[in-house]
Amino acid sequence: MDELLEYGCIDFKKLLILKAKSMKLSDQECYVLLLIMTLDEIGIKPITPSQIHKICSLSLQQIDETLIALVDHHYIARMNGSLDLRPIENLLLNQKSEEVQEVDLVSVFEDAFGRSLSQREVQLINSLKCQGHSDDMIIDALDESVKSGVITFRYIEKILDNWAKYGVKRRYAPQPIKQENIDVEQRIKDYKWWENDE
């Protein structure tokens, strides 16, 4: 299968048109996906809402809403400011894509801010997603701003822009726990200090 993909033997646009109804894609979502595939095929990078707007009659707001819906339904992914078509390609080939855990960014931000977010702040979160930042990166940037004591959307956006500039994909990737650390922690927990006669 990888060789077929590598040599471009599979026409994903035709597959998308044939499978869009069974995948419960709206006509507008299918159209935007076809535009993204076309832009990707002719080598336009990065693919942004403004690039899509140049070749279609949809408004920027409609394109943004459609892209957010496609990302939320895991048909496309955003990686460091650009769109990734691998999820839709895997779905079209009936391959399982990596299970993405749903994150409620509004709740995460409300916990960090200690208050409810305004409508404007919710729009700012959506704009971060539209810029191509993953949920994990947005949460990492929020954590970084909390650690530095500057909890503002402007600061969070600057952190994300800086990370994108230097190609940081995951700031706080989970580290595997070593077995020896678990053993040491267990020995500390089991230590009977009251039995020690010195």
Automatic annotation (TrEMBL):
Q: Where is the DnaB/C C-terminal domain?
A: 107-169
Reading the lineage from the top rank, the first entry is Bacteria
Q: Which residues form a coiled coil?
A: none
> Known NCBIfam families for this protein?
DnaD_dom (TIGR01446)
Q: Hey, which family's this protein in?
A: Belongs to the DnaB/DnaD family.
Tell me the PANTHER family matching this sequence: DNA REPLICATION PROTEIN DNAD (PTHR37293:SF6), PHAGE REPLICATION PROTEIN-RELATED (PTHR37293)
Q: What is this protein called?
A: DnaD/phage-associated family protein
